[in-house]
Design brief:
By secondary structure, this protein is an alpha/beta fold. It has a single domain, classed as Alpha/Beta hydrolase fold, catalytic domain (Rossmann fold, 3-Layer(aba) Sandwich). Helix content is 41%, strand content 18%. It is built from eleven helices and eight strands. The chain has an eight-stranded mixed beta sheet with strand order 1-2-4-3-5-6-7-8, with helices on both faces.
Length: 286
């Protein structure tokens, strides 16, 4: 027969095991998918949401939001499927929203209104569904490649909406491209749509007062990213010239998911520094 001591040890081990299971469940951020029907784009545009680990237990807490945009030929599920973003986000009390942008470059074209969709449909829907901080200091936006371009553009054109803007391998020179797909979306060279979405032209026309209202810009690019690295350097030089608060990092790497998985961790870290995070509750002492 088993001794009382052996039985008690077994009970303790079971309790420890159960506590570990609970801890693991709490430590993992939860990912949800919302299938949103957009009236502006006239289609279903799903988005993924990563909720903080304490979202369900801190029922009165409101959280800042980081909107994370995907790249060209990508979709809303890329970040969760191809990086460790859910694991990285578990370290922060931030809601991460990853919307569907298709190949829109996040602009308002002649046929589709993705820029307006983000601002007037997506953000209000997120605020309605989740306990978010509904103020500029609780909202940031970032992305990779096409999404990096889109994020910087949102920061420049809608500075009252975001306190922080980030980009990884941003495709900033897209308005200079003349391939068939770009021509279809942005119009001919010199068109109104191209000019309105040209990051360099937008920055050149900024007044000192407007510059003072801008969010903080962070962007990085791999030195082996032969197409977009020069465009990133050019943007950094222009921001320096216009005295726009920013940080640009030149890093080893190319235009790949290995690079973006590495850098999205850094973007989360910087976003957490710029956003107003909810205060951590102090536990009372016995």
């Amino acid at each position: 027969m088993l001794s009382v001591v052996t039985i008690m040890k077994s009970i303790r081990l079971c309790r420890v095991f159960l506590l570990l299971l609970v801890f693991c469940a709490v430590a993992n951020a939860r990912v949800e998918t919302v299938r949103f029907q957009s009236k502006l784009v006239n289609t279903t545009l799903p988005y993924n949401v990563i909720l903080p680990t304490d979202y369900d237990t801190s029922r009165t807490t409101r959280y800042p939001v980081l909107y994370l945009l995907h790249g060209l030929t990508g979709h809303y599920n890329d970040w969760v499927a191809r990086t460790n973003i859910a694991d990285y986000a578990a370290d922060y009390r931030i809601i991460v929203v990853m919307p569907e942008g298709n190949d829109s470059w996040y602009i308002d074209s002649a046929t589709e209104k993705y820029e307006t969709y983000i601002l007037q449909e997506l953000i209000p829907n997120v605020q309605q569904r989740y306990r978010t901080i509904e103020a500029r200091y609780g909202r940031a936006i970032a992305g990779l490649s096409m999404g990096g371009y889109g994020a910087i553009k949102f920061g420049l054109k809608s500075p009252a909406t975001f306190v922080f803007t980030g980009s990884m391998s941003g495709a900033f020179g897209v308005t200079r491209f003349t391939d068939q797909d770009t021509m279809k979306l942005f119009g001919a060279v010199g068109s109104e749509t191209r000019t309105a979405n040209d990051l360099y032209e937008i920055i050149r026309k900024l007044t000192p007062a407007r510059i003072g209202s801008l969010p903080y810009f962070y962007f990085d690019c791999g030195t082996e990213d032969s197409i977009f690295f020069p465009h990133n350097r050019e943007l950094a030089a222009l921001m320096f010239e216009k005295k726009i608060a920013h940080e640009f990092r030149e890093l080893p790497g190319d235009h790949s998911w290995a690079y973006w998985d590495q850098q999205v961790h850094e973007v989360l870290k910087i976003a957490a520094q710029k956003l107003r995070l909810p205060r951590t509750r102090r536990t009372s002492r016995a």
